[in-house]
Amino acid sequence: MEVYKRMIGIEKKYNLLEKIYLCCFACYYVYIFLGTTMFEAKWTVPIYRFAVIIVAIIWGIKLLDVKKINWKEWVAGILVFSCYAMQYLRTSDKAILILGIFILASMRVSFRKIVLVSTICGIIVMVCAFIASQVGIIEDLVYYLDNTYRHSFGIVYSTDFAAHIFFLVLGYCYLRDGRLKSAEYIGLLLLAILIYVFCKAKTSTICIILTAVSLKLWNLHKEKEGAIIHPFQKLFKILMIVIIPLCATIMIVLTVGYDVQNPVWEKLNHILNGRLAFGHEGFTNYGVTMFGQYIKGAGLARSTTPPEFYFALDSSYISILLERGIIFFVMLCIVFVYCSFRAYKRREVYLLILLSMMAIQCMIEHHLPDISYNIFLLLLFAKDNTEKEVTGNHYDENILSEYTNR
Known about the structure:
Layout: H1 2-34, H2 45-64, H3 71-91, H4 94-105, H5 111-135, E1 142-145, E2 148-151, H6 158-175, H7 182-199, H8 202-223, H9 233-241, H10 243-257, H11 263-271, H12 275-285, H13 316-345, H14 349-364, H15 397-404
Antiparallel strand pairs: 1-2
């Protein structure tokens, strides 16, 4: 009885820490998200700083409670934080270090609750930005490119607006465990069409459609007891586990091998809106380093006037490798391969599908390491769906065994 009371007390403490973390994460996420809009939200800075301090304290409390952290989590935590700390020392960008703290402090926090908070907050900010841009409170940047108009609807660029929608769709599908109703599939397809019509964001449009189709096929596969893709089921799962390094390798090979004199390469570069040419220029002029380097870029974000000098590394894999270095690049690949393998072992195929869609989208766009888009950065340490939580008289068996075996 004494052991049980002690265990319940510990769990109450962690439940309280989880609630505080989620509140602080909401403040942090909204602040970071607002940075991708046309809003001037300086009033959120004190709230953001206070949230960061509280989460740093939470992380410290968890580090002191060594009996709740196994050696694998210690090693992973040290490696991940070291990578983010090195990025901070190199760039002096506090945002990178703060992201690392939020990632590590998410230990033992329900990932489902994190996704729920980010999805709700993200939708609210997106709706506010959309309405504000249409009534003149903030600017709706409209770009005239390739004989078409592209709206940003209060976000800093049209494709960024579409990318926000795509990642919010991934969050919503995660909360639904990949089991969508017919009306939801239709809704996703209509959303993809609207994004293409008003934003001309081909990448996010295609990825939203792929997400809907992939989840539908998987659910049909389960309903038909594995009769649809049974011969290739294991192959698909293996490919989804290694999808991040696979997509990264494809983009690196295409970028390094790009030849402006070759009409085939030039056609592919045109299809990818010049990403191969800019990436090749990045490899040629800057090269690859262990810890990354500063690369000056200039794009169309926050302005409709083209800059005199335009240079952008839009592919996440290319920008991470060149700007953040080999060590950070390898760490990110290992983290997502591990998370995918863990999802495979727990038969969370829907999560594998969502991570695969993220990996494909990030071949073309630069949002993989950005928490305001990619909430799956917190997947490594957060508590997943299969872990037990204390509610009422239910308890985590691992904790009880920890104290009864003393």
